[in-house]
Amino acid sequence: MMVDRSLVSVVDDDESVRESLPDLLREFGFAAQAFSSAEEFLASDCVGQTRCLILDIAMPGMSGLDLQQELSLRRQEIPIVFITGVEDETVRPRVLERGAVECLFKPFSEAALLRALKVAFRVS
Amino acid sequence: MSRTSDLHQDVADQNVAGQDVRDLESVISTPELSLRPTRAPDHASENRALVALVEAMTASPDDILQKLAETALDLCRAHSAGLSLLDGNQKRFRWAAVAGRWAPHLGGGTPRGFGPCGTVLDRNVPLLFSRPERHFKYLASVAPYIEEGLLLPFYVGGRSIGTIWVIAHDQSRRFDAEDLRVMTNLSHFAAAVYAARTRQVAVQADVHSALATENSLRGILQACTEAVARHLDAALARIWVITKDKRVLELQASAGMYTHLDGAHSRVPVGYLRIGLIVQERTPYVTNDVVNDPLLSDSDWARDEGMVAFAGYPLVVGGQAIGVLTMFSRKPISRATAETLSTIAGTIAQGIRRAQGEAALRRSEAFLAEGQRLSLTGSFSWRVATDEIMWSEQVYRIFEFDQSVPVTLELIGTRVHPEDLPLMHEIIERARGDGSDFEYEHRLQMPDHSVKHLHIVAHGTRDQDGRLEYIGAVQDVTQARRSEEALGKARSELAHVARVTSLGVLTASIAHEVNQPLSGIVINASTCLRMLAADPPNVDGARETARRMIRDANRASDVITRLRGLFGKKDAKTDSVDLNEVARGVIAMSMIELQRSRVILRLELADDLPLVTGDRVQLQQVILNLLLNAADAMSGVDDRPRQLVIRTERDEGDGVRLRVQDVGVGLEPQYMDKLFEEFYTTKPAGMGIGLFVSRSIIESHHGRLWAAANDGPGATFSFVIPRAPHNVTADVMGNP
To answer: Contact, B252 vs B288, CB < 8 A?
Structure first.
């Protein structure tokens, strides 16, 4: 699975995540693309190609949860790994219940990210 | 005996008993005056005498008639001389002034209908009587007898007033044509003197009556001008009074042709125009040539109205001119009238001062009573030796005792709260001992068990005998104490609310702010290791990720520094504060909350915003409060974007403005006034503290906080605070 150069899209308003995470994903062997907002992602031509979405929860405008709902409405069943800087323990069960693959709290380890990606690609 | 007139019947009948009653005509020998040898006129003596009379008229107007009699005596070298005046009821002549040998008969007189004076008035010509007792028998009893009497009538304004006469008691003196000439002059003079004196008396009587009966200063002055217009032939009489700042004369009364008080001369600066000069120089001014005095009025007016004369007298009290009394007249103003004006000017000046003094006293008494009522402060005195206590009305009201009750320490003790009684006794004993000033608070327990808080201040003084007396004030501070308690409660609630909310918000925001760069560091570190472990190692990529790590670590460090800056200061401080920076800090802090509320935030922060002076944390509290309120107001909005605009800008004045604009439920017009009241809330879980505290914070920054409904949906809350005194802008402060 690591050689098919599947596209992993990152949506986060935080610049340091947008800069660093795609490089790491490429080191993992994925193709990677970063977006600064849910709106930007939806407007791009990457939605259909994205095999996995790494999605920040708290963003100005459309939040990660809004995007999840929007994709679900569009029948775009992309596995989603949420990442969030807010340590709110109630968030994780909520998003998992709504079909997310995983919810990682920032800062997360490489191992945790890899585990989540494995689950995501198994699901897909 | 022949009686020619029925008029004399009654008196003539009295004379029937007597013998040798002569015919009236036989005792009149006027024609002889022109037949007798006459002496040369002594004009010099006559003028001297008249000048002396005029001076006497102003110096001592009350005995002018006596002076007149003496002058007649002197000029005619008569044995007796005098004036007879008709009584008010026109029935008798009274000898109002008598000089010479008849002086003891002052106050005597003759009947109007039967006597030489009556005959002179009836015929309205001067008459010379010889031995008149031969006809008027009753005169025989008046000694010494009349050998010859020269009598002249005098009239004032067509009204008969009396006669002026000279008498020779023996044949050593016989009157002639020169005496008739002199006496004619004196009779004219007497008429003028009498008229002037009458006017003077009348106008003074009216002025005194005005002072005694009118209540207001205006009323007094109006009555005075009316008296001047009525009695002194004034076409216009007016009074101006100087203003408090002593710069302007204000027209207070006007009688005669104009009675209005507005118009061209209603306010005249001191030193300006004739009246202003009269006041400035404290010098009267009288002219009988009004038309040619440019300082008086415009000459057209004077000419058209036929004005001839003007007199203006300063109203002087204690060396200070406090106004001016003026009159215009269509006739020349006589010296006598001028003197009358001078006299009543003095009276009016005293009256003004007294009325002003009384008004000031009434006002200050009223002020005091009203002040005591409004401030809930009463005053008291306490004579320590005798324990005599005096209370003002307000103290009675505070203690709720009837004013008829005599005040004693025991009575006071019945109202003092039992727990505070020992304190009161201690204070009293200490005051008795050393007479030092005291100030303390105690409570009252009223009959209905309500409690009042009193603040008492007293100052000890000693009278000349060394007896100690306290003068003091009692203030009912119950309301203030209750407010303080409520405020204290509100403060602790506020502190609690602030602690609870800001802890949550703070934790979330610290986590968020710090976790972002931390996750960057961790991801970069992983990437870096992988790049270095590759074969061949991707050194350039690793170098780039290491650089990013350093940058992210610095970012995290900055966040900590900023958070410490935001929350480290506990006490209110005044710094130069950049509102943009404060707003950004608040937004960072509340971002989570805003996002959870689906608020779309638009920032419009002015680039060149001046700094303000204030407490950063307090201002942050205000902005946070406005922000969260705006978010709350939009929580039910689903038909439009929940847009929130935060805008900073320079105010038109010298201030900085911040607006928070929402598209929420808006403001109910009827509750606009209550918005900023303590404990007013529209939120189910609200405490109604936020806006109240926010406004008090902004006001403590010398600014204003207000709310306005938007043209569209929602409301805008704005505050303005003054810019910092120095011309520094945010850029200079190295803003991030």
So the answer is: no
Q: Give the residue from B174, B184, B147, B182 showing the smallest Cα distance to B32.
A: B174
| Matching residue, tokens 């007879």 | B84
| Peptide bond before residue B422 is cis, with ω within 30 degrees of 0 | no
- Residue B128 CA to residue B274 CA, distance in Å, equals 52
For residue B446, the model assigns a pLDDT of 92
Residues of chain A with pLDDT under 50: 1-3
- B531 to chain A: which residues are within 8 Å by CB? 27
Helix (H, G, I), strand (E, B) or coil at B432: helix
Measured between beta carbons, the chain B residues lying within 8 angstroms of A27 are 526-527, 530-531
Mean pLDDT split into 10-residue runs, chain B, 736 residues: 38 50 89 87 86 75 83 93 88 91 91 90 92 91 92 82 92 92 87 78 85 83 91 91 90 91 86 89 90 77 88 90 92 84 88 80 75 79 89 90 89 89 86 83 89 88 84 85 69 54 57 80 90 88 89 81 53 76 82 76 88 84 86 85 91 89 83 61 49 80 89 91 66 39
CA–CA dist B334, A122 (Å, integer): 130
Residues of A in contact with B555 (CB under 8 A): 16
Q: What is the DSSP string of A7-74?
A: EEEEE-S-HHHHHHHHHHHHHHT-EEEEESSHHHHHHSTTTTTEEEEEEES--SSS-HHHHHHHHHHT
Residue B571, token pair as written in the block:
């006490």
What is the per-residue pLDDT for B507?
60
Per DSSP, the three-state class of B712 is coil
Interchain contact, A14 vs B516, CB within 8 Å: yes
Task: Provide, as residue numbers in chain A, all residues whose Cβ is less than 8 Å from the Cβ of B508.
Answer: 86, 88
Contact call for residues A55 and A11 (beta carbons, < 8 A) = yes
If you compute the radius of gyration of chain B from its CA atoms, what whole number of angstroms results? 50
- On whether the pTM is more than 0.80, the answer is no
Bridge pairing between strands A50-56 and A80-84:
parallel
Query: From the candidates A106, A110, A117, which should be mutated to test the interface with B, based on the most B CB atoms within 10 A?
Result: A106
Size of interface A-B (CB pairs under 8 A): 85
B537 contacts in A (CB within 8 Å)? none
Complex prediction ipTM:
0.85
Residues of B with CB under 8 A from a CB of A: 508, 511-513, 515-524, 526-527, 530-531, 541, 545, 548, 551-552, 555, 591-592, 595, 598, 600-601
- Please state, in angstroms and rounded to a whole number, the distance separating the CA atoms of residues B709 and B673: 13
Q: Alpha-carbon distance B287 to B289, whole Å?
A: 5
Chain B residue nearest residue A25, CA to CA: B527
The H-or-E segment that residue B136 falls in is none
What pLDDT is recorded for position B572? 53
Measured between alpha carbons, how far is A82 from A89 in angstroms, rounded to an integer?
13
